[in-house]
Amino acid sequence: MKRVRINAGTVGLVFKNGDYQRVVTQGVYWFFGKKVVKYSLSEAMERAPVALEILERDEELTAMWHQIDVLDTELVVVYKNDQYSQVLTAGRYVFWKGMVDYRFTRVDLSKIYITEAIEKSLFAKYDLAKHVRTFDVAATEKAVMLVDDVYVKTLTGGTYRFWKNATSIKMIHADLRQLQLEVAGQELLTKDKAAIRINFYAQYKVIDIEKALLGNKSYEKQLYVAMQLALRAFIGTHTLDELLENKSQIANAVFEDTKTAANKLGVTVLYCGIRDVILTGEMKDIMNQVLVAQKRAQANVITRREETASTRSLLNTAKLMEDNQMLFKLKEMEYVEKIAEKIGEITVSGNGSMVQQLTDLFAVSK
Question: Is residue 257 part of a domain?
């Protein structure tokens, strides 16, 4: 004979020779040749001594527990006294009644949308997070959602969660802000066969996300090619001099030519511009020579213009001196003064005519 005490908050399952007999609750019992397995009412029955199918035959026992059957395509979120406890996967579980207030939320994993009333904070729990797919769409973006490669809807900024299963979910993002496209280092031939390198840029914006992402593959690359072709077409129909004289024509032409192509891609081009027009090595040398020749020609023109003005001034001066002997005499004295500044000493020798010549030189004719 064996004395067994069942305390408050526990139950006991009585077995004889391995066979289930009955359930006992709080109290003191005497048993002979029997075994009692005790369970806490505040914990789940994790390991049953025998198959649950045997225990289920006892209606008194089944009235004392919650039996939760979870299918392969299901989850069950368990709450104890309104606090998250655990996530149950496929299997059979038993939770005792009486001590703890249990609440169970059943999840259907065969669908993708989370329609169950589950607090967002619980998705950070690993046991639940591993069954969830999370997608983030930035506030400056939109995304198209594909389910099994079929377009479903367009999503704006936010965090989106879906149950993880065999269904494929894809998110393709597009930035809605103003974007910049660089067409750099394009080596092109002008109409007069001059080789140049152009750095071109364009600013654009996505306006139709479905057209951009679903109607086209790699819309950015297609826009780049459209810009490149428009640039080549314009450069090939103009000479180097025409291009250098007005670079803005290049940007305007490309802007107009790519409007239609951009619209088909679901984007709008806002602005185009030329950053650099770079001459290749040989063309650079040739242009430098042309520039030097032009500057020399301009310098020669200026020199000839100054010489002409100087000659004209001398001619006018000569005419004045021809008509005015006094002016002529003053000019002579001016030159004598300049000569005298260079002479340190004068020695006069010879006949007396030299003195007369000097006298005549400084004499004023009347």
Answer: yes
